[in-house]
Amino acid sequence: MTGEQPDLVEQQGVGVPDALGRLWTPHRMAYIRGENKPSADGAQACPFCHIPSLSDEEGLVVARGELVYAVLNLYPYNAGHLLVVPYRHLPDYTDIDLAETAELAAFTQAAMRTVRLVSGAQGFNIGMNQGSIAGAGIAAHLHQHVVPRWGGDTNFMPVVAHTRVLPQLLGETRRLLASAWPGDA
After folding, report:
1. Are 180 and 124 in contact (CB under 8 A)?
2. pLDDT in tens, 158-172
């Protein structure tokens, strides 16, 4: 690799060339469309309520506590992305009691220590998305994300590789938009 920019190839009708490559990840559309998302808010349809009934291997459970468990995220932002989940089916952080809050905090610390030990993570993003408007994929069941980070992984693709990650091919996006376009517009 010489560091030279590749020749830009213009594709008619898709915008102005911007020197960024494209990495297409159409398999991510299942997540974006919510294909594995529960259709109801009840505990019967909740994957976080179902996972504890599975074996650790089948459910991707890393550790089980008395009130919470740690599980790998099926749609990780980074390798080692864990979720710390209360067993009780509650949507909001203010709904869990003090014992659950304490165990959730202890499991978060344990997750950080474990991931740091196993993979040498240099930092973490830790947080909860409260409500679907805030980005919660499964808003009906509280869960905390523990996302390991390493130096250079932030904005790696566009900054270093001059590449954007897109979840769908342009032809598919075009087809979907065209088929939904109002006939009288």
Report:
1. no
2. 555 656 565 555 456
